[in-house]
Amino acid sequence: MSGIDLIGTLQPKNSGAFPTHDAQYGKGGFQSVADLTARNAIPNLNRVEGMQVYVVANGQTYSLASGLTNADWYSVTGATPQSITWRPGETSKNGQVATWAEVEVWIAASIQPAPLLVYVDDSIATPSVPLTADTDCLGFLWFVASNPITYSGTTYVEIANGGRLRNLAGLDGVSLYGSPTSVIPITWDYSAFFFLQGNAWLDLETGATVALVEVQHTLSIDCIGNTAFINFVSPTYPIIKINAAQILTLTRRHQSQTISLVAGTVGGAVGTTLNFASIDAAPYTAQPLMLGTVNLTRLSKANASDPSRGSTANRPAAPFTGEMYFDTDGYAAIWWDGANWINTPTASSISAFDIDWSLKAVFTKTLSAGANTFTFSNATSGKIIVVRVTGAASTLTWPTVKWAGGTPPTQTASGTDIYTFIHDGTDIFGSAVQDMS
After folding, report:
1. Is 41 part of a structural domain of the chain?
2. How big is the chain by its Cα radius of gyration, in Å?
3. pTM across the whole model
4. Fewest CB within 10 angstroms: 41, 106, 201, 430, which?
5. E strand residue ranges, 281-350
6. 44 and 97, same domain (yes or no)
7. Quick one: the chain helix, strand, coil %, rounded to 5?
8. Cβ of 252: how many Cβ atoms within 10 Å?
9. How many CA atoms lie within 13 A of 196 on its CB side?
């Protein structure tokens, strides 16, 4: 090892009140930096696994594990703060971040599945998701307006052409807009709920040649309050595009205002489905780009300000399949299965041997004797599924899964085993609880 050999300790001359070194020039150890940008700029030569860095801007301490790249930082402070303020142009920080890159780092470091809030402050500059972004918001990220200066109190976030946000949970007082020509900027990779409230908008701007939102799997969009879809181009490209054979459930309600759809809001080919529900008697405006099936439902006005919750007597009069309602008498969340209100989602019976992760979270399969081979489809990062397997003595073959010890368990002969699978974005990890009786 090259360097300077020391035969004693370093110390200030004459016991002077000054430091012996500056931590930022050291290798590893503990450092303090102003913000996440400064943390990510630490040279690789100064990094070692296990080093720790305190970030003044958000009060978090990070450590390096399993590598030396910026993707290997993780918070060791405890639970990551569940909210952050994104204020482009900010220089003083004060607990705020200025760039989308810093927001992405915070998303990656946050503890799942907490409800994460990004407070968007456009008082200095317009927030913009860059063309390089392909951010998985993990299904629980909300954009919330903070100190807006734009029209009607709405904060605008631009998604640059080529940038993409996946699996958002909701908007509150924030408008997402763009003029995409290549990449559809907002998409859902798996079944989810998405909420818009408090004057939250989705805007497709002039010049767009693709949709703003893509529904790749079953999606429910719930619009609460004075929310609206605005489409500034002629109805050639819809704001929301439903992919083949997928289902969009769109619910719109407001306490005192008729809310309808702008023509051209939703598009989909034959085989797609739009379930539209509103508290208004005639809420639907024809969608010339929607060639699939359209089902219209009128919600109960018993609790028009928040029809998703209420007493047993005030449950929606004409619910759509999959609609969720919180019953305040029984203090429980319930679902409409197409015929009855149930208090737990039903499991999906596997007819063949393909397990489609987008359909359910719980699956069941009864085996026949002999060799049986399962396959996975639409496996999604961040999702967990449970598979109950029952049947005669048989040999099971699973897709590529990481098991404890590297060997899949042997199915219990004539018994019931419960398998759990977790997808971390790279690998699928499996475990089993066996011989349930």
Report:
1. yes
2. 26
3. 0.54
4. 41
5. 293-298, 309-310, 324-327, 332-336, 341-342, 348-349
6. no
7. 10, 40, 50
8. 25
9. 21
Output the furthest CA–CA distance in the chain (Å, rounded): 88
Distances in whole angstroms, Cα of residue 269 to Cα of each of 152, 156, 258, 329: 35, 30, 28, 42
Residues 153 and 255 placed together within one structural domain of the fold: yes
Distance (Å, whole) CA 434 – CA 419:
8
Count of beta carbons in the 10 Å neighbourhood of residue 404: 11
Q: What are the strands, taking DSSP E only, across 27-91? A: 30-33, 52-55, 60-64, 73-75, 83-86
CA distance 316 to 244: 29
| 9, two tokens | 């300790």
Contacts of residue 191, defined as CB under 8 A and 6 or more positions apart, other chains included, come to 217, 218, 219, 358, 359
Distance CA 55, CA 35 (A): 5
For 122-160, the pLDDT digits (tens) are 888 889 999 999 888 765 688 888 865 554 567 889 999
288 and 417, same domain (yes or no): no
Unique residue bearing structure tokens 């990449």: 183
Which structure tokens are listed for 394? 């048989």
Q: What angle do CA 86, 87, 91 make, to 5 degrees?
A: 120
What region does 308 belong to: left with phi over 0, alpha with psi -120 to 50, or beta?
alpha
Block means of pLDDT (10 residues each) for the chain, 437 residues, are: 68 68 76 89 88 83 81 68 82 76 79 70 90 80 73 79 89 89 88 78 89 88 70 76 89 58 86 81 75 77 53 72 69 72 68 81 83 87 85 83 91 87 91 87
Residue 322 lies in a domain: no
Place of tokens 């909701």: 170
Whether 113 is in a domain gets the answer yes
Q: Can you tell me the distance from the alpha carbon of 268 to that of 287, in angstroms, rounded to the nearest whole number?
A: 10
Same-domain check for residues 280 and 416: no
Residue in 99, 138, 87 with CA at minimum distance from that of residue 115: 138
